Structures are given as structure tokens and as C-alpha cells.
Amino acid sequence: MFTGIVQGVAELASLERKSNLSTLGICLPPATREGLQVGASVAINGVCLTVVRWDDQAVYFDAMIETLRLTNLGGLQQGDQINFERAARFSDEIGGHLMSGHVIDQVELTARQELDENNLRLEFTAAPKWMKYIFPKGYIGLNGCSLTLGEVEDNRFSVYLIPETRRATTFGEMQEGTRVNLEIDPQTQVIVDTVERVMASRQSFG
Description:
alpha+beta; Elongation Factor Tu (Ef-tu), domain 3; 2 domains; 6-stranded antiparallel β-barrel; 4 helices; 12 strands; repeat; riboflavin biosynthesis; EC 2.5.1.9
């Protein structure tokens, strides 16, 4: 599990593409690598990946074909910047909301508004099927970052970023048209799906 509090931005140092598999070499900071073991989980742009090896230059992760298809990891190029977070421990403070690292889809950044020197508004467009889980003031995971939703209308939603979030993540320099990994709040999904099943059951019995 992850807290959704991105620990920083790192560079994709190497990218090895094989048949239905890519190996990503990420330059994680030395402090982040302390105690890291093969088999450990790290969220890369919100995607839970497993450490397969490391050397002096990078930590390496394998991404399978389904991960590459469903997430923005498939479109990464060497030198790109990514958000990262190591898996949470039982003693960690949950400053965001619990996230699994299981990305369900990608959304597109369709509007970027610099409201003032301290506030940035980002608007995203999502597939209509996900909008039933997205509510104003609810939680959402975008590229591994736990964010509070602002406005929600039709198939669009917005988030507002403070300077620290801009500094610690890739959102600070993100341009319109960028594809971003989406993880919805699992508790919200369970509630919505349960209500839908109950309502459908009642309707079927008249």
C-alpha cells in the first residue's frame, strides 16, 4: 500500500524494451534507496512495481504488457521525469489516502490555469465510465499523488495544487495533453458499486 504522498521526482535513466516487457532504470535518490531490497514495492507514477535489481546508477523494475498498455509507463522515454513513492510501513503517517498502486486508466490534462503565484488549477478529462466514482471534495490518485477533487462536471474534474505539491511532483511543469495515471478511491468504488447492485436487485424484484 501507498500513502499517496509522493516522495519526489526521479529520472528514467534507462529503458530496455523487450517482447511484451520493459525494464525501467530509475535514478532514485540515495536516501530513498536505504534498506531497499529485491522484491520491494515502489510506486512509479502511481503504478506499483517490484524491484528486480539495482546498481550504482539506478534501481530497475520490470513492467509487463498489460501495465504498459493501461498506464503512461508505456509512453515513457529515457530522460523523462516520474513521481515515486516507496511502499508504506505500519508506522508511517497517512497524510493522503491509502492507495494500492493499481491504476485503472489514464486521464488527459486538458486545462492548466495559474491562478496566482501560489495556486495552480489543473483540469482533466476522463472516460465517462469512471465519473460515477469522482465527487467534489473526494479523493483521487493521479500519477501516484493523493489529491482532493475540486469541480466535477460531465467527464471533467479539477484539482488545485499548492507550491509544495508542484515542487515535489511532476505536476509543476506538466503541459496540456499529458496523459496521467488514474487510481480512484477504493472505498468510494465499493460504496458506489454496492449501491448500484442493491438498486438493480430491488428493481429486478419489482
